[in-house]
Specification:
By secondary structure, this protein is an all-alpha fold. It is 78% helix and 0% strand. The protein has eleven helices and no strands.
């Protein structure tokens, strides 16, 4: 009997996704009536200039915010775990991930207005780096909890300074966790809509904003194809994060 609610929940969650993927290969123009197998909507997707622009903006934001988040998140995790242990600081470091997107988006928009920052790709990049840093720090701290701090102590005892110890001992040990955190930050940035909607300029829409503007007039097979591509990219990134996180925990 316990499997029935679980099965119904899985059906409710995943059957619509399966329908979207299947209908992305539909030869007809209707997103709901099957007219045969075809890849033409993926060709239409590649030729759509609006989608290409949104994809380019998304990749720029995701790559930039991931690079910034990886550096800041790694340093934040090391600082909290090795130098400044504080429950309050731990809570503040994870707050951007826990806060509802709408709250974080409004707060960032208010801050940009306060400092009179013109909205554009860089404003979205900085906004995504906020929650990306928290995500990277959480993953790296998981890796730090399984490492032996005596290795760093031995390095310092042998005459290495703090930077050398971090670069030659700490960072190589944290590498699987750092890569997993970077992949997670990249995935979150690619899929994020609410914060980008509030902090992007009118001439710099990201791909989720482009999708939103398109689905307002109805779901088309082209949208199904785009959703399928994003699903494949996200699924692959999540599998990589899980694999690297597991690897980080076993080494």
């Amino acid at each position: 009997m316990r499997r029935i609610p679980l099965g119904l929940t899985l059906v409710f969650l995943y059957v619509p996704i399966v329908v979207v993927v299947v209908m992305s290969f539909n030869a007809g123009d209707s997103p709901f009536n099957w007219n045969g197998f075809s890849l033409k909507w993926y060709g239409e997707l590649a030729a759509d200039e609006q989608i290409r622009t949104g994809l380019g903006n998304t990749l720029i934001v995701a790559a930039g915010s991931t690079a910034l988040s990886t550096v800041l998140g790694t340093l934040l995790a090391v600082g909290l775990a090795r130098h400044t242990r504080s429950t309050l600081l731990d809570a503040i470091a994870t707050l951007p991930v826990i806060l509802p997107d709408i709250v974080l988006a409004i707060g960032l928009l208010a801050f940009y207005a306060l400092v009179q920052l013109t909205l554009g790709l860089y404003s979205v990049l900085l906004a995504h780096a906020v929650f990306g840093t928290a995500a990277v720090a959480a993953v790296v701290r998981t890796r730090l909890s399984t490492t032996d701090p005596s290795l760093e102590e031995a390095s310092r005892d042998l005459g290495a300074n703090g930077f050398t110890t971090f670069w030659r001992v700490t960072l190589p040990t944290l590498a699987p966790g750092v890569v997993a955190g970077a992949l997670l930050a990249f995935t979150l940035s690619v899929d994020e809509f609410v914060i980008a909607f509030f902090t992007a300029g009118p001439q710099s829409p990201t791909l989720p904003i482009v999708i939103y503007s398109m689905v307002r007039f109805g779901v088309t097979p082209e949208i199904n194809a785009l959703a399928t591509v994003l699903l494949a990219v996200t699924f692959t990134a999540i599998l990589a994060v899980q694999r690297l996180t597991r690897l980080a925990g076993t080494r």
